[in-house]
Write a structure and sequence with these properties.
single chain; alpha+beta; 4 helices
């Protein structure tokens, strides 16, 4: 990964950003230890796989919509998708809009309170567990008409493993009732495949 570029005119930005990143990373490692125990793996199963991994802390700005009359019916700020990584940690956003798809096909609104973190299962963990832990399909819908002129800010932490992590489905998650769903590949190969599908890489 290329080096980070921090704005020089905001002297505290680097310090606070790195503190947030490390806090999220440590929380993510703790969650992965719990997930490993649930999957009946050694508690430290994910430790070497996420050490110096390709995790991302992103600041997202959903722009205001100045003319609501031009918004097509059913338009959303972010289309339905699953995250590519192992798990995503998300603090409360500046505005509502996040929705998660339930098993019954219904979209439900998700709002994290100030002392809460939303945790999404990502596509990589879905592959590793052969869909035992299902990728969280989510979207961000437009605000009510009276709030369309406002921005929405969100800062998710995408916990990625090292590119060489093997995402071959765990043997314990494959059986006659749940046959293997995915071809074998590394995290790096899967990321590359997904970025090409999204048109973000040629």
């Amino acid at each position: 990964m290329p080096g980070n570029i921090f704005p020089e005119d905001l002297p505290d930005f680097k310090e606070y950003t790195l503190e947030v990143y490390k806090t999220f990373e440590n929380a993510g490692k703790t969650l992965l230890r719990a997930i490993a125990i649930y999957l009946e793996l050694p508690e430290d199963y994910f430790e070497d796989k996420v050490k110096n991994g390709d995790s991302l802390l992103r600041a997202l700005h959903y722009f205001p919509i100045p003319n609501p009359d031009l918004v097509p019916e059913g338009a959303v700020r972010a289309a339905a998708h699953g995250d590519i990584n192992l798990i995503t940690l998300l603090m409360g956003a500046s505005a509502e809009g996040l929705e998660v798809l339930r098993r019954d096909g219904k979209w439900i609104a998700i709002t994290a309170l100030p002392d809460q973190i939303v945790v999404n299962v990502g596509d990589m963990l879905d592959r590793l567990t052969n869909h035992k832990l299902k990728s969280t399909i989510h979207r961000v819908v437009n605000p009510p008409r009276e709030k369309m002129g406002t921005s929405r800010y969100s800062i998710p932490f995408f916990m990625h493993p090292r590119a060489d992590m093997d995402l071959t489905s765990l043997e314990s998650c494959v059986n006659a009732e749940n046959p293997k769903l995915y071809v074998d590949m590394t995290a790096g190969e899967f990321l590359d495949e997904r970025l090409r599908e999204l048109g973000l890489k040629k």
